[in-house]
Amino acid sequence: MCDMAEEVGVVDPASAELLPLARSVAGWAETRNSHVGFVGYGKTVAGNKVLIAVDREYDPEIPQAIAEALREKGAHVDILTLDVGEPDREFDLLDEVRVIMRREPWERNPRRWEGIPFVEDFAAQRGYDLLIHGKGGPVPKTNFRYEQIPWLRVEHFRQPSTIYPLELHLLVNQKTWAPIWEHGRGGKARLTDSEGTDISWTYWEEYYDGSRYGFSAEPRNGHLFSHPVPPLVAKENAAGVVAGTTSHFTRAFPHLRVELEGGQIVSVAGGGAYGDAWRDLLEESKRTQYPCFPRPGLFYLWEAAIGTNPKISRLSDIERHSSGGFEWERRRSGVIHMGFGTLWRAPEERWAGERGLLYGHLHIHLLFATLVVTAKDGREYTVIRNGRLTAFDDPEVRAVAAKYGDPDELLKEDWIPQVPGITCSGSYEAYSRDPAAWIYRDGRARP
Predict the structure, then answer these.
(1) pLDDT of 340-363, one tens digit each?
(2) Looking at 133, 162, 191, which one is the last position of a domain?
(3) Whole-angstrom Cα distance, residue 185 to residue 376?
(4) Who's near 18: CB < 8 A, 6+ residues apart?
(5) How far is CA 138 from CA 79, 237, 295, 324, 338, in A?
(6) Would the pTM of this model clear 0.90, i.e. be above it?
(7) Residue 23 belongs to what domain range?
(8) How far apart, in whole angstroms, are the C-alpha atoms of residue 322 and residue 341?
(9) Which of 59, 131, 134, 168 could form a disulfide with 115 if both were Cys (CB 3.0 to 4.6 A apart)?
């Protein structure tokens, strides 16, 4: 519903505290991008009608502060709060499966990150100039401007990542993307990680035709696709192992290991209840021929997305459903999230939903990745080394950073995961059996 207090411009003290940040975001460039540091509402001018639509999982101070900042620009702003989302609780191991995987059209049962269809229809019917709605994923094409609001908690919004210098952030993305787009064609990639990942694939010439979402000369800033997106070619050959203990939106799980051949998962080992569910879904979908994949089966690798913002930090209440889970931290520079299944809201998802077939994609996060691109001529380009973007050491990047402050500080990650046996003392083997115990309890005793 729309809050009448908002209609008359009343701002509570908590929202007023956030106003300086909200004013910055209100002037930031609009790019239809959900990735923090690239989200803004800067095309708003006096007389615009703006709808901010959130659910009950958002701290209300955030949409209120953004609304006030836009009103200061002369816009008319309504806030629509939807009574959707769950009462707050601790995550369990099946949350990601529940919020992502579907067997019906997504309009009937919207997934966590996508905009709610009736909100999009309402914005169109009521003639809004700008809809601010959604937590992630691609923004659908609309006749009105459409930007997302990825900050659920005040703790999210206050992080320096929200207004990280845009010129610097764009250059970091350009430097990180160049080895893949400018030098990768016809070459190969090898991706490894301290939790057990070792996988390689070929950058086939066909992937460079510019027709694939986000895999083009103009990348998805903040979410760089180091593996091409569907449709996948018949000779797709990603092979190896992907392993980890976290994903977007579930409790940290015991060590999970998926093995790939010919681009698709052939086995899932470990992972507790998350792994059990994945194995069941793998079996369910193994005979389905999806339009976007060369052979039957759902769980092909397509997403190996690189985060680029060094000022993203894990939330203090990460075990709670209301925190948004580990999804937030996949935006941190050098973190790669691996996705297996169908591309969000792609034609193949509509195709599957209309037929009652399984669709969606599941994730594994890589927190300490090393990504090396080998060009067709044999030259090697290290894109990420042990979880850190090599672009941060580029002289041009450092020179631009110096325009905004201390380059060492601006190009330093504010948060580095503390994982026993990798970044702090202890046994990784013991950690990997029950990572939730460490992340939600023991690890908090560490600085």
Answers:
(1) 999 998 999 999 999 999 999 999
(2) 162
(3) 7
(4) 61, 62, 65, 154, 157, 158
(5) 22, 26, 26, 18, 16
(6) yes
(7) 4-162
(8) 26
(9) 134
